[in-house]
Design brief:
Layout: H1 2-12, E1 15-16, H2 20-25, H3 27-36, H4 42-48, E2 58-61, H5 62-65, E3 72-75, E4 81-89, E5 96-99, E6 106-116, E7 119-120, E8 130-133, E9 136-141, E10 144-146, E11 149-152, E12 156-158, E13 168-172, E14 175-177, E15 180-182, E16 185-188, E17 192-201, E18 209-212, E19 221-229, E20 253-256, E21 262-265, E22 268-270
Parallel strand pairs: 1-3, 2-4, 3-5, 4-6, 5-8, 6-9, 6-10, 7-11, 8-12, 9-13, 10-14, 11-15, 12-16, 13-17, 14-17, 16-18, 17-19, 18-20, 19-21, 19-22
The chain binds 2-acetamido-2-deoxy-beta-D-glucopyranose (6 copies).
The site of one 2-acetamido-2-deoxy-beta-D-glucopyranose has 5 residues, from loops.
């Protein structure tokens, strides 16, 4: 009974960070903490006892937490959002979604995050681990995404910057390995500013990087010093359209539609098919 309450409330939670201190100070956070002590493991207890947004230096395992929905769905306030040294594991409907509300551009600084074995496996599902949207500038540094899966965007699904061209995604020193779906990184309609000093290896089920109708901010999307190795587009076509080439074209990179210009410099492409 008690557990059901905690699980349901986590699964349904939409977190507005602007309200965070208010919520954390209120009885709701205290209630979560108290109830979580009933038989939960140390890990689950630590996580459930946290305020209603992810905390630095923490491991979140959705299986241990009993969370079946998206773990964190955060509306980023104009003051921004940052997170460091966090692992998200075993979430079955995505781990983290960050969005900036229309007409409220915001930024997110994500450092040393690891996403392992998260998924969003329905055939129409987008974003196995991390989803970004709205006028959001998201910068991921030193990240690892391994063994995540989704139909589109097995690791990262971003439409950030799609509506207004404000914001966009930057990846630096990131590794994407063994993710499965169309696009370990999928940017649809949004802005991909740059991918630097990163590795895409052994991803399958589609293209390692999937770009569709991307926008720009007056400069080309930069792929610099990125290694693409052993990525395989062995998916089966993920759209209802039988002519769809999604999932079976462009093992390393698949870019379609009227795109932002691409500047691919000092990258290596090996064993992709
Ligand atoms: C990162 O977080 C883990 C807990 O998940 C902690 O044990 C470790 O010390 C942290 N690392 C750093 C550099 O703070
Ligand atoms: C996350 O929150 C946004 C904004 O409130 C909402 O539109 C979206 O449906 C939510 N996603 C999920 C999976 O609940
Ligand atoms: C989603 O699919 C992947 C790849 O087929 C699999 O490894 C993973 O266990 C599935 N996740 C769930 C929750 O079924
Ligand atoms: C290129 O990226 C790799 C990581 O994939 C890094 O180890 C290396 O130092 C980078 N090279 C340069 C010239 O920055
Ligand atoms: C990719 O797979 C190859 C061959 O199995 C392996 O040698 C390599 O370490 C893998 N790369 C990553 C980053 O996991
Ligand atoms: C492409 O990117 C490289 C590395 O960031 C930069 O040195 C170069 O000037 C860019 N080229 C163009 C045509 O924008």
């Amino acid at each position: 009974m008690i557990k059901t309450y905690i699980r349901a409330s986590w699964a349904a939670l939409v977190i507005v960070l602007a309200l965070r201190s208010c919520l954390a100070a209120g009885s709701h956070a205290a209630k979560l903490e108290g109830k979580a002590e009933d038989g939960a493991s140390g890990l689950a207890r630590r996580s459930l006892a946290a305020p209603l947004a992810p905390q630095d230096d923490t491991l979140y395992d959705c299986q241990l937490l009993g969370v079946t929905g998206l773990l964190f769905n955060i509306t980023v306030p104009t003051t921004g959002f940052s997170l460091r040294n966090v692992t998200f594991r075993n979430c079955a409907a995505g781990a983290l979604a960050l969005s900036a509300p229309d007409s409220s551009p915001a930024s997110a600084s994500l450092t040393s995050l690891t996403f392992l074995a998260n998924s969003n496996n329905a055939t129409t599902s987008y974003g196995g681990a991390l989803t970004l949207s709205g006028p959001l500038s998201a910068t991921l540094v030193d990240c690892t995404f391994a063994a995540n899966s989704a139909a589109i965007g097995s690791a990262v699904y971003s439409t950030a910057g799609a509506a207004t061209g404000e914001g966009g995604l930057t990846l630096q020193r990131c590794t994407f390995a063994g993710n499965r779906g169309q696009g370990a990184v999928a940017v649809l309609g949004g802005v991909l500013l740059a991918v630097r000093d990163s590795v895409f290896a052994n991803n399958s089920g589609g293209s390692a990087v999937y770009l569709s109708r991307t926008r720009d901010q007056g400069a080309a999307t930069v792929l610099y010093n990125v290694t693409f190795d052993g990525n395989v587009a062995d998916g089966t076509g993920l759209s209802a359209d039988p002519a769809s080439q999604l999932g079976n074209s462009g093992g390393a990179l698949y870019a379609v539609g009227a795109l932002a210009a691409l500047n691919v410099t000092s990258c290596s492409f090996t064993r992709n098919r």
